Amino acid sequence: MAHAMDDLVTEDISEYLRRHEHKSMLRFITCGSVDDGKSTLIGRLLYDSKLVFEDHLAALEADSKRVGTQGEGLDFALLVDGLAAEREQGITIDVAYRFFTTDRRKFIVADTPGHEQYTRNMVTGASTADLAVILVDARSGVVTQTRRHSYLVSLLGIRHVVVAVNKLDLVDYSEEVFRTIETDYLAFASQIGIDDVTCIPISALLGDNVTTRSDNTPFYDGPSLVQHLEEVVVDDDGPGKPFRLPVQWVNRPNLDFRGFSGQIVGGTVRPGDRVRVVPSGTESTVARIVTADGDLDEAAAGQSVTLTLADEVDVSRGDVIAQATDPPEVADQFECHLVWMGEEPMLPGRPYLLKIGTRTVGATVTHPKYKININTLEHEPAPTLELNEIAVCNISTDRPIPFDPYVDNRDMGGFILIDRYTNATIGAGLLTFELRRSQNVHWQATLIDGAARARSLHQHPKVLWFTGLSGAGKSTIASLVERRLHDLGFHTYLLDGDNLRHGLNRDLGFTDADRVENIRRAAEVGRILVDGGLVVLASFISPFRSERQMARDLFDDGQFIEVHIDVPLAVAEERDRKGLYAKARRGELSNFTGIDSPYEPPRSPEIHIDASATSTEDSAERIVAYLLEPGVLRD
């Protein structure tokens, strides 16, 4: 490496390694607006810490000359900006993690993106950080992205903030500029609950106040950035919290051993401790704490272990083994803070996957209460959420989950939302509290169940979900199918999209969010009718796959039959007796499926009808023939 080794390395390598092993660790992030100098600062920290290998230094010198941003000087940002796109644009896109060390402490630093488009990456970097270094360009002052990142830092529970007023050399090391920025930031920080703020005037490029105090800022008598990072006291309250171990894996190597593996995210545990498995509520006693290096007498937050229990209890991946006297709460409806990360807007009622700890469940955002204006901190209406918007929402899951409020335990209260089809992470959230109605509203058991109702009607209840473009012939074909089934003695009901909009759904429009709610309500009605033993024919455009999947998920296996009435758009327009396509083409109807709103055709429907090549009567007979096969509607 391109530095002189510490004397202790050559004199007593064992002592050097022992001291290094026992140094404390600080995880921090750098964030701020575009081109505030985050990557340059980290590059300077790595360079001044003598942690740049000679080949890397040679490459840095060559790249600096080629890129040419600093003339003959070194461009320290190139040590961190590893992606080609970042080097070409001069911005950070991904989260770059780097390690460096000083005599007093070890550090893991995440260089997080400054561009608004990549705020979602900043949330990733901040989720495990103890401290945030927020850079502010001395020439620009506190800007919107500074406020956004600061709000997220506060929201994510980071208690220590350093405001590095960078590029002070470009304003002649002006004390007035520094004090103005310091005053502006402290005023904003007090509004969002950040109490521990240290403002440091720096030049990341020239090294002023980065590792040592600079003579260019005589007005500043505080520590250098590195000195502050070495001395800041980070509260590690993990061991003092109630014991929590989300089960990652049920470890069963042979018939004589059954353990439950995972990382402890709160508290401590010892053999003999009484624990509770959540959400089942089963209790047992810890028998052993097993690791690769042997059994432990005690384990604490941050350690990955395998627990064995004294009793044969049912424990699965996603369960939480917790302190019996202080277990986590269990609920299926919550208030949360949600940071939206998806390119497509969040739509209330749309089904997503929610991952919390080691458990993944289905979830919907039932009601966005408001979004936060980052500049004014005002609460604004939020029918939907766009990329990077932050809101307070109600969210529900398809089954009860164990949790702690995020302020009490990050790991037990933080979650991500995942798109069911792309598997992309589209949101990050923090659970605030369970909604009282989740505890006050219970399912009322009835004396007669759906199976009994079906037996009395001598049929297997189903829902036939007709989907397709407007004008494809869904309602016409569904009506013919219902009449034929009725003639055969089946008990049916036809749910038509237009009819429901005259009553139950008369308050809904045709925005994407309203379409989602329209299908949610229709599917719930269909479920009630199927529980009543009926064969339900539901005719809805239902343009989005995710909503049709949401509808399918409400029913038992085999009860949902998707029928795609498929015609080309041109044919649908020719058949349009209502003139809706013509109005949409003229711009008189907005959000019309097939024109300015998409239709996502089913990938694998149970029944596919090419309605452009088949008459409505033949289409209906084909569907009826499918239903009359043994085991579908009757044995």
Give the structure's gist in a few sentences.
This protein is an alpha/beta fold.
Could you give the topology of this structure?
Layout: H1 7-11, H2 13-21, E1 24-32, H3 38-48, H4 54-67, H5 84-89, E2 96-101, E3 105-111, H6 119-126, E4 131-137, H7 144-155, E5 160-166, H8 175-192, E6 196-201, H9 225-231, E7 244-246, E8 249-254, E9 257-263, E10 268-269, E11 274-278, E12 282-290, E13 299-300, E14 304-309, E15 320-323, E16 329-340, E17 351-356, E18 359-372, E19 379-380, E20 390-403, H10 410-413, E21 414-418, E22 425-434, H11 437-440, H12 450-457, E23 462-467, H13 474-487, E24 492-496, H14 497-500, H15 512-531, E25 535-539, H16 545-553, E26 560-566, H17 569-574, H18 580-585, E27 607-610, H19 616-627
Parallel strand pairs: 1-3, 1-4, 4-5, 5-6, 23-25, 23-26, 24-25, 26-27
Antiparallel strand pairs: 2-3, 7-15, 8-9, 9-14, 10-13, 11-12, 11-15, 12-14, 16-20, 16-22, 17-18, 17-21, 18-19, 18-20, 21-22
